[in-house]
Fold this sequence. Notes:
Structural class: mainly beta
Order of helices and strands: EEEEEEEEEEEEEEEEEHEEHH
Strand order of the largest sheet: 7-8-9-10-17-14-13-12
Distance between the termini: 25 Å
Amino acid sequence: NKFYANFFLGSQTQPTWTHPYSVSWPRGGGTSRSWGMAITHIEASQKVFGPDPNANPPQYFINPGGIHYVAMSATELSGGTILTTDSLTAFSANVNLHQNSGAAPLITFPLVQGMGFCTGIYNGGTPILQTGVFFRSLTREQNLPNGCAKYRIILEDSSTWLVYAYSPRTAPLTLNVVNNGLIQATSNFVGTLQVAKSPSAQAEAMYDASCGAYATGSTLSGNATGTVGTYTMTFKKEGLQSSSLFMWALPHHVQSFSALTQRFVRAVYL
């Protein structure tokens, strides 16, 4: 019953929910036909209620499935690619993509519930981005002060997705559009590639301040004194230490925040 179980059950292609994103391994199929990690985010307006949508309450709702908005992969991943997992905890897991069964991980995706970015740690290889929604445009923004390269993608559904690349070892990542389903880097890459959906200018400013940093785990602790109980979620941060850590919270988390934590809440929603 762990949130990441679909990465080791059955065909390994069913989605995993990190909230607000879901991620999946298309395994060369689906709308993106990618061998990388596909990222999905469903807006509330896309839900379908039934069987009578006007009932109060309706009996069920359905999220549309199988939409690969942006998939993070590499040119070296193809039919021999295998997926492994490690560092499994209650709230986090690493998902690794290997060129073949004897190879070291080419990309590692640290998955943590509530993660602000979908992060791929590239250990070489040539990054590519794929989509089942189609790319409308790719724009390179100015490099950020923290050293991250920034790109803006507009998909054909008019959604905006931001891509950040950071490497202390290789040259800044250069991405070019090959066709409306494929964006490819011009060279091999060792570093982090991060993808996030941008709902607003305020969200984009937060992404800019947080790129290069990512969570790799979460520890839950609790305490009770008399009739008052508290709980704490502590996130482990890696990557660019000068960047702040961006995490999403669910409504019941926000309702329970302490006064100190409330100071860091921003009105950004997905």
